[in-house]
Specification:
By secondary structure, the protein is mainly beta. The protein has helices at 4-10, 18-21, 311-320; strands at residues 45-48, 52-56, 65-70, 74-87, 90-96, 99-102, 106-109, 125-129, 133-137, 148-153, 157-165, 171-176, 181-185, 189-191, 209-214, 219-224, 227-233, 246-249, 252-261, 271-283, 287-291, 307-309, 332-333, 342-346. The termini are far apart.
């Protein structure tokens, strides 16, 4: 039997008292009549996004452990239920074929049909991964261990520039990143139609668009002419790496970014995240609003300073904000850092 402290440690609760973990307090509702997105939108699959997670016989942490699932295991979701409110922002648990899982630490995944590889890519196309994960390589040779280049995840976005045949006889896309080239299975990537990347509300003057981020409520709300038009829960920076308060402006936009922190893999703050989708840098020290595939824990601080959104939410923000970024660029910056959409961050 795994001890309660060990269980809490595996899901990130060490340092919180039992009272703090079970207060029953939900985030204060932001001052808007807009509907916030659901925390689970009927996705039939869940990918374990932490190092490992315990599945339980019932939806609470005192229930017996019935399975220990490792990172990247995929389980089928039977239904979403209300259970113990482990963290104050969510009481959702997933009833799966392996037991009950707390929903904050797994990635929602759909199961679309395999994509037909396309050779006519022009100067390049943007594509999004549609499978739970896919192994990538430095060359299209999955049989060469030295060619291994890690793993990419559902919702990640990449610039594909060529369709090639690998040593396994299958189709692979060549992906161009800022500083390297990798190869991924073509059937695992969906080419994003251009109409899904065009600007939203282009007729609204840039000065009439404002994003308001509340750190206490963990909400991001978009305003046009002073009226709210879109809202979402977010995850902002933790106490020792807070998201900076104040008035900022979007100044650098990227459809995709490999985010790397630290140069030593044994550094506890090290991370290497490929294909982070729909990035809008808005504050000093490269603080951005961006999509997230490594958790489903929106509504409480847990980032290194950035503002985490679902990939779908991040795409909406990327399309709605200014400057309007060209689709053929890996990144685009304003000449004046006060030109882009205003982002007001309050405590």
């Amino acid at each position: 039997m795994v001890s309660r402290r060990a269980v809490l440690k595996t899901i990130g609760l060490v340092g919180l008292s039992a009272a703090a973990a079970r207060t029953g307090l939900l985030p204060a509702r932001a001052e808007t009549s807009l509907q916030f997105p659901e925390r689970w939108n009927g996705e039939p699959l869940a990918r374990i996004a932490q190092a490992y997670q315990n599945a339980r016989a019932e939806p609470h942490t005192d229930a017996p452990v019935v399975a220990e699932l490792l990172r990247d295991e995929v389980v089928r979701v039977r239904r979403v239920v209300r259970g113990e409110q482990v963290f104050w922002n969510s009481d959702l648990w997933l009833e799966t074929n392996r037991g009950y899982l707390y929903a904050a630490f797994v990635q929602p995944v759909r199961f679309p049909l395999p994509q037909k590889p396309q050779a006519d890519l022009g100067e390049g196309r943007w594509a999004q991964l549609i499978v739970p994960y896919s192994d990538v390589y430095k060359k299209p040779d999955p049989f060469d261990p030295e060619a291994e280049a890690g793993r990419i995840y559902y919702g990640g976005v990449f610039r594909v520039e060529e369709l090639v045949t690998g040593t396994d006889g299958r189709s692979w896309y060549r992906i161009r990143e800022m500083y390297q080239t990798i190869y991924a299975r073509a059937t695992h990537l969906r080419l994003i139609p251009e109409e899904e990347l065009t600007p939203l509300s282009p007729d609204v003057p840039p000065e009439e668009k404002v994003l308001r981020l509340s750190l206490s409520e963990q909400t991001l709300i978009a305003y046009e002419y002073g009226e709210p038009v879109w809202a979402s829960y977010v995850s902002t920076g933790v106490a020792h790496r807070p998201t900076p308060e104040g008035v900022h402006y979007v100044w650098d936009k990227r459809i995709s970014e490999r985010m790397v922190a630290s140069t030593a893999s044994d550094d506890p703050d090290f991370y290497n995240l490929p294909g982070v989708p729909f990035v809008c840098y808005f504050a000093p020290n490269w603080v951005a609003i961006h999509g997230t595939y490594w958790h489903n824990d929106y509504g409480r601080p847990r980032s290194s300073g950035c503002v985490n959104l679902t990939p779908e939410g991040a795409r909406w923000v990327w399309r709605w904000t200014t400057p309007v970024a060209p689709l053929d660029r890996l990144y685009y910056q304003t000449r004046n850092r006060l030109e882009g959409t205003k982002v007001i961050v309050t405590a």
